[in-house]
Amino acid sequence: MADFYQNGIVTTLHNLAHRPVEDIESELREFSKKRPMSLILPSLFSELEGDALPNIVKHLEGADYLSEIVIGLDRADEEQYRYALKFFGALPQHHRVLWNEGPRLQALDAELQALNLAPKELGKGRNVWYCMGYTLASNRSESVALHDCDIVTYDRELLARLIYPVANPQFNYEFCKGFYARVADGKINGRVSRLLVTPLLRALKKVFGEMEYLQFMDSFRYPLAGEFSFRKDVLNDIRIPSDWGLEIGVLSEMHRNYANNRLCQVDIADVYDHKHQDLSLEDDQGGLSKMSIDISKALFRKLATHGKTFNTETFRSIKASYFRIALDFIETYHNDAVMNGLTLDIHAEEKAVELFAQNIMKGGEAFLDNPMETPFIPSWNRVISAKPDILERLYEAVEEDNKEFMTR
Fold first, then answer.
1. What InterPro entries would the database entry show (predicted)?
2. Three-state DSSP state, 76
3. d(CA 134, CA 75)
4. CA distances, 116 to each of 103, 130, 241 (Å)
5. Cα angle 303, 290, 114; round to 5
6. Contact status, residue 173 vs residue 166, Cβ threshold 8 Å
7. What is the DSSP secondary structure assignment for residue 89, as one 8-state letter?
8. What is the pLDDT of residue 244?
9. What integer pLDDT is reported at residue 277 of this predicted model?
10. What is the Cα–Cα distance from 218 to 200, expressed in whole angstroms?
């Protein structure tokens, strides 16, 4: 059973009683009469052939309170798109698959690229952004959840608990972040969150002093969780990064756009495991190495908008402070693991911290070398201003793809 402690300045909704999922879903069915709900699933085609996504689809068949499921499909040719239509055809809810590599969506993307209004990088951020646009265009929901497609420990309680805070009409939350303990197979996982993000936030506090933004970010128990939910109006004005800074960028946007009492985090799973990224010690353009650079840059960019200035000496101080804090955390997590009968490889943890420390410096150097870098995808409000019919055309493109290839 979780504790009921409220840490930081963001409301934490705990799992205190292990309430039956059937009770939660019964309430969600009632909520759906006032606040229709939808789910966004950003997916790679390869995930359709794995073990996680088939299980996710099976569980979602019982989520009858959802009005719509929007699936973003990346890295798929025509034959694979047809396969995806059949694969997701098991879902009883109204659902659509966005074929991101299809000619119709590619043509729309090219138009937006010409106006510098489209995502510049392939990846999850781009996929999520187009799914958000389609969700706005379909206008079938008021509350929206989003989660990854590689969760191997998935059951539908995760979704029910995730969407409940923004679906309950008596709550005033605009955004909810999921959290969980990254423990599976007798090990503590979640290295980037444990050994990079939290120690880096604490180091930034040491260097710059207490800041409300840093306190806000440090209030989230699992800031890199890919599971969150929101009211539909959040979609219009959010600007998200297209790189690995996506989750940090989303939290930063919520901090910019909403008061803290409109935001919360919720415990969504006792056990959570998904696909693990390689550390990529020899390649800073892949795996956890690139992720750590992108996350560091995302935090530095945000602090710059708060008037903080950086130079090489600043980054050296941040790195030195981070390194000491992170090493102390390794001992903390090791002791926690031992007490709970779990394993934790101290040598592997220290290798990760050494890599992250190097990449904090690399992220800082990249920030100084390219101060005009703008990895953020434009908000849909801006895109609609430039192309007033874009949502209608996006909707029609997805519908035409579905109609053409479902009948073949």
1. Nucleotide-diphossugar_trans
2. coil
3. 19
4. 19, 15, 15
5. 75
6. yes
7. G
8. 72
9. 66
10. 10
DSSP string, 281-337: TT-TTSHHHHHHHHHHHHHHHHHHHTT----HHHHHHHHHHHHHHHHHHHHHHHHHH
Helix axes 124-138, 246-257, angle to 10 degrees: 50
> Quick one: tokens of 401?
């793809």
Cα–chain center distance at 205:
24
Other C-beta atoms closer than 10 Å to the C-beta of 324 total 13
Are the C-beta atoms of 53 and 149 separated by less than 8 Å? yes
For residue 76, give the nearest of 53, 49, 51, 109 by alpha carbon.
Answer: 49
Say what the pLDDT of residue 240 is: 83
Whether this prediction's pTM lies above 0.90 is answered by: yes
Nearest to 251 by CA among 261, 262, 240: 240
pLDDT digit string (tens) for 311-368?
A: 999 999 999 999 999 999 999 999 999 999 999 999 999 999 999 999 999 999 999 9
Residue pair 209/308 in contact (Cβ under 8 Å)? The answer is no
Token pair belonging to 137: 């265009």
Angle between helices 156-167 and 52-60 (to 10 degrees): 60
The order of strands in the sheet holding 37-44 is 11-13, 263-269, 175-180, 228-231, 143-146, 37-44, 66-74, 94-99
First to last CA, the chain: 51
> Do 43 and 76 touch, CB atoms closer than 8 A?
no
- Assign 229 to helix, strand or coil: strand
Nearest to 60 by CA among 178, 160, 180: 160
How far is it, in rounded angstroms, from Cα 356 to Cα 377? 26
Q: Are 223 and 383 in contact (CB under 8 A)?
A: no
Q: Which among 136, 145, 141 is positioned nearest to 383, based on CA atoms?
A: 136
Dist CA 147 CA 159 (whole Å): 8
Structural domains of the chain, with CATH? 11-406 (3.90.550.10)
Gap between the Cα atoms of 174 and 166, Å rounded:
6
Beta partners for 70?
40, 96
Torsion of CA 283, 287, 288, 293, to 10 degrees: 60
Q: ∠ at Cα 251 (248, 255), nearest 5°?
A: 135
Nearest Cα neighbor of 394 from 382, 405, 407, 380 is: 380
Instruction: Look up residue 196 and give its DSSP letter.
Output: I
pLDDT in tens, 247-274: 999 999 999 999 999 999 999 998 888 7
